[in-house]
From TrEMBL:
Name the record gives this protein: Thiocyanate hydrolase, gamma subunit
Keywords in alphabetical order: Hydrolase, Iron, Metal-binding
Family per similarity comment: Belongs to the nitrile hydratase subunit alpha family.
Record Pfam families: NHase_alpha
Domain of life: Bacteria
Amino acid sequence: MSHDHDHDRTVKPMVDEITDFEVLEIALRELCIEKGIFTAEEHRRFTEFAEQIGPTPAARLVARAWLDPDFTALALAEPMTASKEVGVDWMEPTGFGTPSDFTAFQILADTPGVHHVIVCALCSCYPRPILGNSPEWYRTPNYRRRLVRWPRQVLAEFGLYLPDDVAVRVQDSNQKHRFMVMPMRPEGTDDWSEDQLAEIVTRDCLIGVALPKPGVTTNAVTTTRPAVHPIS
């Protein structure tokens, strides 16, 4: 007796559904729990904490810097101290004894002639204590490999077209160094409060793939067009 078999509906083995990094994370997590480095409950609490972090603290930092030149100077000279002013302690971000393993943090200020954008060409290093978890596209090889070679092309795919006289500086994160972008304050916001300004400093602005604009808030969904290999 023959049976029709729908291969498209066959459930694949679990091992094919997770990446090598996920397998490594599971093994390392279970080993740390077994060795008593932390408990399963502590890991759960940290995971929940990490998942709820958003770009709000960094947006608040930028908004405050736009309004206060002294705070701007502090943010650029002592970014970890400025982070504490908006409620983020890089050395102990969770508040319950789980210190960050990286402490070199720098804020990159855009100018009329220079635009910054961040990437981690090797993997996906990201300033999580102040920006939360990185977006999925930030971790893709497509973004990581191409941004360092064709930054204007990639920025254009996010809808950001910069004038030719604006230099684009790509800052590559690494194991011990994290970066975030401080964009320039947009026109038409002269009388805005810190709360109003913080709302338009989106995560994409803090990465450098967008510019803050009145009416475009942290709830906006960025539309990207398909990647096209540059002509030259």
